[in-house]
């Protein structure tokens, strides 16, 4: 991710902006590939609504779909998440340095003496 933002990168970030889609990704990460109905059982929404979330995740490249008879099995595709991590890494480093500076400042301050 070079800061200019491509359409693919924008789709990944837009997909991750929704709590339901993040939960779908969590379920797939923790439980492995699952049929739509198994995923739907975790949400209080109609199946067409979940299908829309799965479509967004599929278009962002975050999940893949495989047909097994009448079922559609969804699988996590983590490669786009590595790009997000690469984009976030400088911010993580920024905050780690800031917190280290705060820790150093606090360590240099004299301890309060009990009254």
Describe the 3D structure:
This protein is of the alpha+beta class and 115 residues long. The chain contains 5 helices and 3 strands. 62% of the residues lie in helices and 12% in strands. The chain has a 3-stranded antiparallel sheet. Helix 1 packs antiparallel against helix 4. It starts with 6 loop residues before the first helix and ends in a 7-residue tail after the last helix.
Short description:
The chain has helices at residues 7-16, 19-31, 36-40, 47-59, 79-108, and strands spanning 34-35, 63-68, 71-76.
Characteristic terms for this protein:
115 residues; 62% helix; elongated; alpha+beta; three-stranded antiparallel beta sheet
**Percentage of β-strand residues:** 5-15%
Placed side by side, the strands forming the largest sheet appear as 1-3-2
Class derived from helix and strand content: alpha+beta
- Give the overall shape: elongated
What's the main sheet like?
3 strands, antiparallel
Tell me the distance between the termini. 55 Å
Total strand segments: 3
Helix count equals 5
Measured as a percent range, the helix fraction is: 55-70%
Succession of helices and strands: HHEHHEEH
Mean pLDDT: 87
Taking Cα atoms only, what radius of gyration do you get, to the nearest Å?
Answer: 21 Å
